[in-house]
Write a structure and sequence with these properties.
The complex is a heterodimer of chains A (about 575) and B (about 250). In chain A, about 35% of the residues lie in helices and about 20% in strands. Chain A is an alpha/beta fold and about 575 residues long. Among the domains of chain A are: about 235-345, Succinate dehydrogenase/fumarate reductase flavoprotein, catalytic domain (Flavocytochrome C3, Chain A, domain 1, Alpha-Beta Complex); about 425-555, Methane Monooxygenase Hydroxylase, Chain G, domain 1. In chain A, the strands form five sheets. In chain A, strands 1, 2, 6, 7, 8, 9 and 16 form a seven-stranded mixed β-sheet that branches. Chain A has a four-stranded antiparallel β-sheet with strand order 15-10-19-20, with helices on one face. Chain A is globular and about 65 Å long. The N and C termini of chain B lie far apart (about 75 Å). Helix content of chain B is about 35%, strand content about 15%. In chain B, the strands form two sheets. Chain B has a five-stranded mixed β-sheet. A two-stranded antiparallel sheet of chain B has the order 6-7. By secondary structure, chain B is α+β, with helices and mostly antiparallel strands. Chain B folds into two domains: about 5-100, Roll (Ubiquitin-like (UB roll)); about 105-245, Fumarate Reductase Iron-sulfur Protein, Chain B, domain 2, CATH 1.10.1060. The chains are: A alpha/beta (about 575), B alpha+beta (about 250).
Chain lengths: ~575, ~250
């Protein structure tokens, strides 16, 4: 079988994977990046509003401490405090570094990088270029990467991690184009596979976001945390049906966009009078959902987001992507009429449990970074923190993986493990099953939307678990009816669905366990925030083939306590 | 509102293929990619198609629809003539992998040969917004390669070994016009990039889904730059003297 050998194997070529690969290669490690898509197409390109960093270019008072406090306040203090600290401290340097690598961002009158306001950030903090910041970031990292000694393997999907004893020593996957199998041997493996939005029917996420890294990590013995916290972005398009879920950047509200219901009422005044449209995403999403559910929505089940009071030229210059998106896809001129929007599944706060400094999982040789890693964001993520997250921790994980690779041998691959991985994929093609992957995927998405969405309760969650059990049973008979190995999306979906089922179950089990409402997790039967739940995360691991959920204390170093206490006091006095 | 339309989708591989007829829903707001997905879900479960974001931001779903290179995710079925089937085929300037998927790997090889951003030494990291605006247009490129597909130098004359195509002239322009960049890419432009092969028919500009003025704002200024730097009599004299003394 085709086999490649590297010191560091990075799985995923979005922002976090590329940043990790750059650092690893710079440290002298022989580095490979495996990308499920073509290079430069990763979901990072969809990030619009900006990258959060306390540079203080616009609001000079901004400091890392405030960014740290904002991040923890949004995360309802369930964040890994150490991660939030490192993130807030290092984000400014990571952004300056991007500029030195050729990234181009909007400027202040004095020629420094400009920064814009965003929900939940005390100061204007998001470095941006128009509303396509993610593309700029990804392109900058991509170009940096290809001019380094990094081997890039495009359109290659990893379906199994390979182990030698406890240690991860490589990965197994297939080439999309040929359907042939491939083995990557490596001393360190970095998971950077992104999110899992495709388990919900209405999502801003691309087809790739199927939670692959989370399922791979669980299988290899790592833990997931905070899986009950799925971010529904408040503003996704609702019409036409083909674009339902497509992201409408928070920058629309950052630039002064106003939310109204069918009665023309600026309803955020009833939900968060102080922050209004720029409240945290969980609050705004639930407000929009509630307005629509209670009959004050628009013709397509959303509410209205309006920038038509701003000068048309400002809208076109500051939000060019949104202007074009609505004009081209919905026939709406946002300089003249409001957009109709509703919440869309956008981001997974939870993910693989990692050590803050290195991205190391509990499994030797395995690291995780970016959206597939958990801890940084706690119960809700602030807009702009995902791009800075992937820069800060991408660099750290890349460095740690390269460093560890120096002292670890290239372990042998177990042929039996490879054979089992091969057999599983071939069964989807040539086995005796009769379950259609497209239908199974649609059913899973329906279950998650109905029972594990913005609002949850015990009855619904138990129903979801039962349905997921039934889907898992059906999934054992998955097969695509056309036995074609070359670029066969139906075949690929079989493996993706397998991963999505694991993630869906983890989310549902954690959501059932956490009997309170906090951040993005809202329980109708437990509507209040509970003090007792405030100091623990939920961790998922695989025990004897079954998922089990346990409590873990929040990582909260003493020296950060005064900053947190100060913020809590400030909020209490409001 | 719902309406079914006929689609003719090219199915095949490098060995050959043909158009296969399907029907799919084409209600208000349906884009070609929606129809392709429906066909895939219900009638041709192995139909090969490349896509990612479905939001015209990643540039993955380029194909030729009724003979014109477009992003399938932003081409409304309603905008296409109703009296005949919608014809969908892969980008033809590149080898086909299978069905609607083309092998665009050549573009990545070209990109790797372009000297990267190289900041001048001792600069202060300040830029004017108007300088940012000028290159921002080029940096909007989502690498859908529709411009490469329509360019007759690549599509008809197959000069992939002598010409980098509009996409990478845009890329070079974004670097050359970066106010803090210090590298000189004019030797590349005049040589291996094959800038002279472009005869400004502007087909690339017409198909760009990002509305980048490829010919006017990137290619023509680069051509002028070559003329200024390479054919300026004073510069030639300096070069000749430099060669002699070297």
């Amino acid at each position: 079988m085709e086999t490649h050998e590297h010191d560091v194997l990075v799985i995923g070529a979005g922002g976090s994977g590329l940043r990790a690969a750059i650092e690893s290669a710079e440290a002298g490690a022989r580095t490979a990046v495996v990308s499920k898509s073509l290079l430069g197409k990763a979901h990072t390109v969809m990030a619009e509003g900006g990258v959060a960093a306390a540079l203080g270019n616009v609001d000079q008072e901004d400091r890392w401490e405030t960014h740290f406090q904002d991040t923890l306040f949004a995360g309802k203090y369930l964040n890994n405090w150490r991660m939030a600290e490192l993130h807030a401290k290092e984000a400014p340097e990571r952004v300056r570094e991007l500029e030195r690598w050729g990234g181009v961002f909007d400027r202040t009158p004095s020629g420094a990088m400009s920064q814009r306001a965003f929900g939940g950030h005390t100061y204007r903090r998001l470095v941006h270029i128009g509303d396509r910041t993610g593309l700029e970031l990804l392109r900058t990292l991509q170009d940096r990467c290809v001019h380094q000694d990094v081997d890039v393997f495009m359109e290659c999907t990893i379906t199994h991690l390979l182990r030698s004893g406890e240690r991860v020593c490589g990965a197994f996957g297939y080439w999309r184009a040929s359907g042939e199998f491939v083995v990557f041997r490596a001393r360190s493996v970095v998971l950077a596979t992104g999110g899992l939005g495709r388990i919900y029917p209405v999502t801003s996420n691309s087809w790739e976001c199927t939670g692959d890294g989370l399922a791979l990590a669980l299988e290899a013995g790592a833990e997931l945390i905070d899986m009950e916290f799925v971010q529904f972005h408040p503003t996704g398009m609702v019409w036409p049906p083909g674009v339902a879920g497509l992201l409408v950047t928070e920058a629309v509200r950052g630039e002064g966009g106003i939310l109204t219901n069918a009665n023309g009422e600026r309803f955020m005044a009833r939900y968060d009078p102080k922050r209004m449209e720029l409240s945290t995403r969980d609050v705004v999403a639930r407000a929009i959902f509630t307005e629509a559910r209670e009959g004050r929505g628009g013709p397509h089940g959303g509410v209205f987001l309006d920038v038509s009071h701003l000068p048309p030229e400002t809208v076109k210059r500051r939000l060019p992507g949104m202007y074009n998106q609505f004009l081209e896809l919905a026939g709406v001129d946002i300089t003249k009429e409001p957009m109709e929007i509703a919440p869309t599944c956008h981001y997974m706060m939870g993910g693989i449990r990692v050590e803050a400094e290195t991205g190391a999982t509990g499994v030797p040789g395995l690291y995780a970074v970016g959206e597939c890693a958990g801890g940084m964001n706690g119960a809700t993520r602030l807009g702009g923190n995902s791009l800075s997250d992937l820069l800060v921790f991408g660099r750290r994980a890349g460095a740690a993986a390269a460093e560890a690779a120096r002292s670890v041998p290239l372990e042998p691959v177990d042929p039996a493990e490879v054979a089992a991985a091969e057999a599983e994929l071939l069964a989807f093609l040539e086995g005796g099953g009769d379950e259609d992957p497209y239908a199974l995927h649609a059913d899973l998405r329906r279950t998650m939307a109905t029972h594990v969405g913005l609002f949850r309760d015990e009855t619904g969650l138990r129903t979801a678990l039962a349905e997921i059990d039934e889907l898992k049973r059906r999934a054992r008979r998955l097969r695509v009816p056309v036995p074609e190995r070359r670029y066969n999306p139906g075949w690929h979906l079989c493996a993706d669905v397998r991963n999505m089922l694991v993630c869906a179950e983890a989310i549902t089990r954690c959501a059932l366990e956490r009997t309170e409402s906090r951040g993005a997790h809202a329980r109708l039967d437990f509507p209040e925030l509970s003090e007792a739940w405030g100091s623990c995360n939920l961790a998922v691991s695989r025990r004897d083939g079954e998922l089990s959920v346990e409590r873990r204390p929040v990582v909260a170093p003493d020296e950060l306590e005064p900053l947190v206490a100060a913020r809590k006091e400030e909020e209490a006095s409001r | 509102m719902s309406a079914r339309r006929r689609f003719e989708v090219w199915r095949g591989d490098a060995g050959g293929g043909s158009f296969v007829a399907y029907e799919a829903e084409a209600g208000e707001g349906t884009v070609v990619l929606d129809a392709i997905h429906e066909i895939q879900r219900t009638q041709a479960k192995d139909l090969a198609v490349r896509w990612n974001c479905k939001a015209a931001k990643c540039g993955s779903c380029g194909a030729e629809v009724n003979g014109r290179p477009v992003l399938m995710c932003k081409t409304a079925v309603a905008s296409l003539p109703a009296d005949r089937p919608v014809r969908v085929e892969p980008l033809r300037a590149f080898p086909v992998v299978r069905d609607l998927v083309a092998d665009v790997s050549w573009n990545y090889e070209v990109n790797a040969r372009i000297p990267p951003f190289t900041p001048r030494e001792g600069i202060e990291w300040r830029m004017a917004q108007e300088d940012v605006d000028r290159i921002e247009e080029f940096r909007k490129c989502i690498e859908c390669f529709l411009c490469q597909d329509v360019c007759h130098v690549l599509r008809d004359h197959r000069l992939h070994d002598r010409y980098v195509g509009p996409r990478f002239l845009v890329r070079i322009a974004s670097l050359e016009m970066h106010p803090l960049d210090g590298a000189d890419r004019t030797p590349l432009l005049a040589g291996a990039a094959g800038l002279g092969l472009c005869n400004i028919t502007k087909c690339c500009t017409e198909v760009c889904p990002e509305g980048i003025h490829i010919t006017d704002n990137a290619i023509i200024p680069l051509k002028e730059r070559i003329v200024d730097r390479r054919y300026d009599p004073l510069a030639r004299l300096v070069r000749r003297l430099a060669r002699r003394s070297g």
